[in-house]
Design goal:
Blueprint lengths: L1 E5 L7 H9 L4 E5 L10 H6 L7 E4 L2 E4 L1 H12 L9 H29 L9 H21 L15 H12 L9 H10 L3 H6 L8 H10 L7
Parallel strand pairs: 1-2
Antiparallel strand pairs: 1-3, 3-4
Helix pairs in contact: 1-3, 1-6, 4-5, 4-6
The structure holds glutathione.
Protein name: Glutathione S-transferase
Keywords: Transferase
Organism: Sulfitobacter brevis
Length: 225
Amino acid sequence: MLEIWGRPYSSNVIPVIWTANELGLEYTLQLAGGSFGKLDTDDYALINPNRMIPAIRDGDFALWESLAIVRYLCDRYDAGGLSPKDTQTRAIADQWMEWSASKAFVPVIHLFFATVRTQPTDRDPYKIATLRDEAHGALSLLDRHLTDRDYVCGATFTMADIPLGCVVYRYFNVDVDRPPLPHVEAWYQHLTERPAYRDHVMRHFGTTPDEWAALEKACASEGVN
Ligand SMILES: N[C@@H](CCC(=O)N[C@@H](CS)C(=O)NCC(=O)O)C(=O)O
């Protein structure tokens, strides 16, 4: 059976868990990283020598790097569906997945840490506004792209929507004022209709250290560890 190693609240693990559920795959979640540890073990180094999450094991095959895992799962289990068959459509999917990691993820994750993971008394309004502007600037490009298409690759949902869908959930759910992004908002509404997105991406972040610790502990009921 497929094994996914990681924590279900971790930003790079969420796309992998969403993909597996979108594909209807059976898997076991092996809780690792953060308070679950295990990354320093010799056994884990055989799965991911970077000692980071996520990683998967599919039979004898091990793979790390979240977006490589998303591509692998879609290629192996839904070629021609979530993984577009047409070479140029596939290239466009790859382009936006790379762009998600290089341009959109970075300001949004920093904005997330500057808000959700920083106690209100320690938050820096200038830093938050700067990160919000950077995130908005990046996502404006996606907004223009989505002007005349429902999903990133066109009329249907593909793997290209997955990393960006995770980024956008965080952006839309941190406590900041946001300028409008009408086409991204419409696309996000489509994503919220997908059960796997609702169950595995639209999760409460935990806003205090205690709440966060409780969420981490609750993960144990979702995994085999
Ligand atoms: N580029 C890598 C980044 C992996 C990464 O940064 N993982 C973080 C969690 S999001 C990690 O392993 N941190 C150590 C930990 O959680 O204990 C990927 O996309 O898989």
